[in-house]
User: What shape does this take?
Amino acid sequence: MREVICIVCPKGCHLHVSQNAETGEYEVRGATCDRGMDYGINEVTNPVRVLTSTVKVAGSNLVRCPVRTNGSIPKGKIFDCMEEINRVLLEAPVQVGDVVIADIAGTGIELIATRSVDAV
Ligand code: SF4
Assistant: This one.
């Protein structure tokens, strides 16, 4: 059995996820909604996260631009993603929604800017 805290909403339910040895099906106790049931099973079978961070930007009064992935990435790819993010140097101006990395760490997911950055 795995204990997991659901992060889908601020309630933070404590989930207990176990697998039936005979059927292979998962059981989630402690979830108070269907989204928590899905989260609990995904967290033990294929955990994913939306990654938020910042990247360096040149030619602006801001030195970093906030970014996020536009989809969920496998937790096991987060360090690979951060290595790519740390190598980025954007040139201002940047528009919110601009694609910063098209296929981050080979996940097929885009990294996008979450704010606009004006040039000086
Ligand atoms: S189980 Fe449902 S109510 Fe509880 S934290 Fe997850 S999403 Fe929120």
